[in-house]
Amino acid sequence: MNRLPNPSFNYNEKGQQYSGQRKTDPRIAAQIHRLLGDAKTVLNVGAGSGSYEPEDRYVVAVEPSSVMRAQRIALGRAPAVQGSADVLPFDDGAFDASMAIATVHHWPDVARGLAEMRRVTKGPVVVMSFDPDAYDVYWTAEYFPELLAVEGRRTPAMNLICESLGGQTQVIPVIVPVDCVDGFQEAYFGRPEAFLEPKVRQSQSAWSFLPEGLEEVLVDRLRKALESGEWDKKYGHYRSMPEMAGSIRLIVSNPD
Predict the structure, then answer these.
(1) Domains of the chain, earliest start first
(2) Rounded CA gap, 96 and 98, in Å?
């Protein structure tokens, strides 16, 4: 599947309320932090408002959006360096570990950005992304197929991420709890009513790439299915599932 030529989401224009919905889920954070090993210095690329940054290590954040950098300050996190992944202003091997969390699908040059992360990192590079080949594993494939098609075209394949990072790579499914406090799409696998709320959709960048008017069509499709009982008849078991492994992956690269 071909990726969109410029998948970047305009956080300066549309990211003002992002940190209100996209919060650190401690259970997912624990998965990420284990993969960072015993690193004392960590680089966070595409850091946004600072979700998932470990608090017990020295973290340097890089973020291109002024709106997202301001949200870091409002949340009491350290300021971020203004910059982008494809030209990191650091020496080779400057950090013990590095991380990029739910960001690479926004990068115009994914391969170059990941190669830069590998260049400046002595130890593990940890990337959380989405497997476009697994977007159809749960009920959104029926109600939001157009949205998933957009996501598939802008999300890099797992093999591209692994090849760009080099070294010894491993791809690990992320287990998402049903009460996940982070606001990505799969966080609501057992709470479909959340998608009817504009603030939830506004914190998920894929909706902004839909053709005009299509968002309303998809939301109305789900609303009618919920009101009629159709959704619960088909997919109500998701409400009682404690967790789900969907399309979210952790890719960790260690040097050879």
Answers:
(1) 12-254 (3.40.50.150)
(2) 7
